[in-house]
Specification:
This protein has 210 residues and is mainly α. It has helices at 3-14, 16-25, 38-48, 53-65, 75-80, 83-88, 93-107, 114-117, 122-129, 137-146, 159-168, 177-183, 191-208.
C-alpha cells in the first residue's frame, strides 16, 4: 500500500471524526511544490504573512515583475534591487527587511539549498530557518508541508487548522494550540494529512456560511 493509502487508513482507524472528514472531503490531494528553492518558498511565505491570498498574490506578481529576465529573483538579485522599488511592489518596510535578511542568510548558507534541506530533519530545518528575520515556526512549517511534503507536520498556530478543528469536533470556542497538539498525537505519523483535512473543514464552513 502506498503512503497515501497509509495516511487515510491510519487517520480513519484512529479517529472517527477524521474518518468522517475523509469521507466528506475525498482523497488527500496535497501536491508539494518540490522544485522551489527554500529561498523562494520563504520569500513567498513572507509575502503572505498577515494578508489575504489575493492581496499577497498581487504583491508577489509586482515583485517578480521587477526582475523581467527571471522566473523568480535570486538572493543576489534581491539585494541589488533598490529598496524603494521593492516597497513599491507593496511590501511593508518590515517585510522588505525580512526579504533582504532572507537573501543574505541564503548567500551565507544559513538558509540551505534545496538539496541540503531535503536531508535535514524537520526540527533541524525549523531551528535553522527561524534565524531569518520575520520567519517563525509557522512559516517554516508551511515550507515543510508545501515544498518538502513532510508527512508529520501539525501547524497548531495556524488559524485555519484550529478553526477547522473547532468546526469538525464541535467545539464552542477556538481551541488553544496545545489542545490541538495533544489531540493530534493520535494522528502521528501523518499529521500533515490531518492538518489538510482540517483546512478543508474550515474552507467548507466558509463557503457554506456555517
Amino acid at each position: 500500500m502506498n503512503r497515501l493509502g497509509l495516511e487515510i487508513r491510519h487517520l480513519s482507524k484512529t479517529d472517527p471524526v477524521m474518518k468522517r472528514l475523509i469521507r466528506q472531503m475525498g482523497p488527500f490531494t496535497l501536491t508539494p511544490r518540490s522544485k522551489r528553492s527554500p529561498f523562494e518558498s520563504l520569500a513567498r511565505a513572507i509575502a503572505y504573512q498577515q494578508l489575504h491570498e489575493k492581496a499577497a498574490e498581487s504583491i508577489l506578481h509586482r515583485f517578480v515583475a521587477l526582475f523581467p529576465t527571471k522566473r523568480f529573483p535570486q538572493p543576489d538579485d534581491l539585494l541589488a534591487m533598490n529598496e524603494q522599488a521593492i516597497r513599491g511592489a507593496g511590501f511593508s518596510q518590515a517585510k522588505v527587511a525580512a526579504l533582504r535578511d532572507l537573501a543574505a542568510k541564503t548567500l551565507d548558507g544559513t538558509v540551505p539549498t534545496g538539496a541540503i534541506v531535503r536531508k535535514l530533519e524537520d526540527e533541524a530545518i525549523i531551528e535553522r530557518l527561524i534565524a531569518v528575520r520575520g520567519v517563525g515556526r509557522w512559516t517554516v512549517e508551511m515550507l515543510l508541508i508545501f515544498q518538502l511534503g513532510r508527512p508529520d507536520v501539525l501547524p497548531v498556530d495556524d488559524f485555519g487548522v484550529r478553526n477547522g478543528f473547532r468546526i469538525a469536533y464541535g467545539k464552542r470556542s477556538m481551541p488553544k494550540p496545545n489542545e490541538v497538539l495533544r489531540y493530534g498525537e493520535r494522528w502521528k505519523p501523518y499529521r500533515t494529512a490531518a492538518a489538510w483535512y482540517l483546512w478543508r473543514a474550515a474552507d467548507r464552513a466558509k463557503e457554506t456560511g456555517c
